[in-house]
Amino acid sequence: MGQDDVRIFDTTLRDGEQAPGFSLRPAEKLQLARQIDALGVDIIEAGFPISSPADAESVRQIATEIRRPVIACLARCHRADLERAAWAIKPAAQGRIHTFIATSDLHLQAKLRMTREQCMEAAIDSVRYARQHTFDVQFSAEDATRSDFDFLCRVIEAVIKAGATTINLPDTVGYSTPDETLDFFRRIRERVPHTESVVFSAHCHDDLGLAVANSLAAVQGGARQVECTTNGIGERAGNAALEEIVMALKIRSDRMPYTTNIETRQIYPTSEMLSQLTGQGVQVNKAVVGRNAFAHEAGIHQDGMLKDRRTYEIMRAEDVGAPWNPLVLGKHSGRHAVQRRCADLGFRIEGEELVEVYRALMTIADDRKVLTDQDIRSTIATLRSEHPATAQHDAIDPFDTPSAAAQHSIHESGYGHGV
User: Fold this and answer.
1) Cβ distance 375 to 367 under 8 Å?
2) What predicted TM-score, i.e. pTM, was given to this entire model?
3) Quick one: pLDDT at residue 302?
């Protein structure tokens, strides 16, 4: 692993799956794990084995079948959790036990009812026990960003000495801002001795909509692992979205010169599979994978897109494996987009006929949100039956399959259905 390589720790099957409405059966988790493997993530957190016998068995199945990435599972700093986790990852080619305990005074007093000293002892004992079952042990200080800084540093130093190889510092409730996060990771790495021997990780929640920004800030502050989920699913407002982190690093490599092992063309297929398995879709304007992420209705945007995609798109749909059909016709569309869509459907519409077709379609669009291909066909047929003298000669039969030449023309233009 190079200095500029960022490991992608996918927790879709653990933090994501435990969110309300996203529960998956073991066979579904295994199916999704195969796709996440194809996506190229470095670590798959497959579940929380102590939570149920089904989850423990699911982690073990994934650890048995999925061989390339590290297979991790979660365990509290309790012996029963750790024993179940060790059993679950035993078949893995590369297994990781991810143990955690809260370090903030709020969590220690209100939730765990324990002292700082008891917290420290539990963390050290758990890491030591985990190291008896795998060399790859991750320790997480839950609610790290709201913990007393001096105490947190003491805990990190102690678990590194006990054998932890990855130190995760979660923004558990999504409270931090990017400038705080960057400074937080820098200060930790400067303050704690022997940090060169471990990988620091960020796990950011999206309660204030800052999870991705905070994750990227953590990388700039020295974190070399980010924990994230497909579609940003997870507790409450969710986790940092894998697709947004990966594409931000790819597109803005001039500002963030870091690399990942993600096969970006598998991003959209993974998103789609997750939505199908859970029955939970993403909002239409979701970055990277939303239905409208590469769609344009405004006439000015459509005109720019017809001339050069780069005018309004900073990445290509095909780069993330998404279908590309950018021209959405509605009341904001311009004549150029209508003319191109007509051409895609096999109609040659020019001059006065284009003006009439455009006006008729905009009248329909006033009552509907989106114009369909059938709206276009019906409108053209109606106008041509009323004004046969103005009808243009079509290169393609509008109600038949386009010819090979026409299909080639559409494909080359980059605006056909399948591009």
Assistant:
1) no
2) 0.82
3) 57
Q: Tokens standing for 173?
A: 């409730």
Residues in the chain: 419
* Amino acid sitting at position 28: E
How far is residue 250's CA from residue 254's CA, in Å, rounded to a whole number? Answer: 9
DSSP string, 191-210: HSTTGGGSEEEEEEB-TTS-
**377: its two tokens:** 């066909």
pLDDT value of residue 111: 97
As a whole number of angstroms, the distance between CA 154 and CA 332 comes to 59
Q: How far apart are CA 87 and CA 155, in angstroms?
A: 27
Which residue do the tokens 């620091």 mark? 200
Read off the pLDDT of residues 79-92 as tens digits, 9 standing for 90 and up: 999 999 999 999 99
> Residue 139 phi/psi, 5° resolution?
-115, 135
Three-state secondary structure call for residue 216 = helix
pLDDT of residue 405: 35
Residue in the structure block whose two tokens are 């050290």? 124
Task: Say how many Å lie between the first and final Cα of the chain, rounded.
Answer: 36
The whole-number pLDDT of residue 364 equals 82
Side chain identity at residue 414, one-letter code = G
- Both tokens of 164, joined, read 């932890």
Beta bridge partners of 107: none
Q: How distant is the alpha carbon of residue 75 from its chain centre?
A: 24
Q: Residue 335 in contact with residue 341, Cβ under 8 Å?
A: no
HSE of 233, CA atoms in CB hemisphere, 13 A: 26
Per residue in 124-156, pLDDT tens?
999 999 999 999 999 999 999 999 999 999 999
Q: Which stretches of the chain score pLDDT less than 50?
A: 297, 395-419
Decide: helix, strand or coil at residue 267: helix
Q: What is the largest CA-CA distance in the chain?
A: 90
The pLDDT of residue 162 is: 98
Task: Tell me which residue of 38, 1, 10, 212 sits closest to 98, measured CA to CA.
Answer: 10
Position 312, amino acid: Y
Helix (H) or strand (E) holding 292: none
DSSP per-residue string spanning 9-33: EE-IIIIITTSTT----HHHHHHHH
Beta carbons of 270 and 36 less than 8 angstroms apart: yes
